[in-house]
Design goal:
heterodimer; A: alpha/beta; Rossmann fold; Hypothetical Protein Tm841, Chain: A,domain 3; 2 domains; 6-stranded mixed beta sheet; 8 helices; globular; B: mainly alpha; 9 helices
Chain lengths: 331, 215
Amino acid sequence: MKKFINAPEAVLAEALSGIAAAHPGLKVDVENKVISRGARRSGKVALVSGGGSGHEPLHGGFVGEGMLDAACPGEVFTSPVPGQMVAAAQAVDGGAGVLFIVKNYTGDVLNFRMAAELAAEEGIAVETALVDDDVAVQNSTWTAGRRGTGATVFVEKIAGALAEQGAGLAAVAEIAKRVNAASRSFAVALTACTTPASGKPGFDLPEDEMEVGVGIHGEPGRRREKLRPAREIVATALDAILADQPLTAGDETIVMVNGLGGTPLIELYVVFHEIAAAFADKGVVIARNLVGNYVTSLDMAGVSLTVCKADADMLSLWDAPVNTPALRWGV
Amino acid sequence: MDTDLARTWVQAIAAAVDQHKDHLTQLDSAIGDADHGTNMHRGFSAAVTALADYEPDTVGAVLVKTGTTLISTVGGASGPLYGGAFRAIGKALGTPTADTQQVAAALAAGLASIQKLGAAAPGDKTMIDAYAPALAAFQQQADAGADLDTAAVAAADAAEEGMRATTPMQARKGRASYLGARSIGHQDPGATSTALVFRTLAESLAASAESMGAR
């Protein structure tokens, strides 16, 4: 598989250097692998997230005013290590505490848990908000629990806005958990993705088939099916989402149609058209939306849908100013 | 077991992981995210480097340092799980040398660390499916009065048997669990690397016994 890289082992450090050069307003610590806002905000709750690389713009692209204070990228698809997270917390803690936003994967959870213990020993108050929105995986003793995917963007945006307004750590953690609880996602892929280290696709998918219920790490989905028109794919995804989080006429939502890295924007708009039509039929209001590549899986051709049943607080915080490389409005 | 042997063991794991890196990643590619070989290789290479200029007084200090290095370099779930296990094993070996019973107790502490962090049980298709039978075999030999070499060979054999037994299992922990029934038919990468850890322990002890005999 062809890639724009120099060497697989250099990808992360070189990409971080690129982010530093492209966004001089951010502080990029290439050695500790931490992307942060330039200066510590005294008295403001700091939001720190992180996870494996390969999901760009998540998380580094969401560092800035009104969203994250710091992000720690791990190796491609590999959780960052506790030392990175502690370095990030120390770099941005303004004395009001730190909220860790953690996607529910075993590696991320274990490393952030160790980091929270280490940060507490350093005298930093830490709360953790877990994101687990992917309804393709059932939450049961038979799995590691639901994966954290698209809702991470909603959690980081809305909790980031509340922190920017000066709310305390408990309140910021509470809204983060509320947004996660109100959000559901489902994803479908048309191709596998290729990590720089392996150089070949994670699985073979025939031309006329799709993986249904995929995550964001190139792993196969819950099942494989024959490819169908976008309208039917969207119906499958919405059925799974609405079975778990019913919506009724008049409900307000934030909807994200997210490309997994290898899907043309025009196809994402076809998908959004189908959701808008389906929700219009039900009388469900799409109050806000995002259509684009926000939580990717390297070069996977695929799409994820995330629906958040939003209350008035969430919508107002959604509209608050945000100034990051990947999301910017109101500034 | 002394500090030199502990260091030799870690070096042997690094060499084995290097040799089997692509195999581990290939297994992980089928049911995970295709990085287990790369991550283990990065961690154990770093551990070898960290131990190069380290002159510890106890067997445990070597393994604690190894564990700490793994936690700070591996990432993913394997970093805390392997790192925590080596730290727990090391903390139980606070003496310049260790006998079979001491090592058995230390290995038990390592398994306890993995189970506490990962909350997995035997049969979940994880590293525990190699580790638990290896520990049981080691303990059985230790209780029978066997020497370290014999106990380690029994443990390595049991680990490999446990590793092979993960193939028909359905994963209930970690990323492979997202596949549900589709995880069946693939050998678990974590159990495979755990089997390497136990095999290299047996090989390091055998090589050390051989060189002692030659002396």
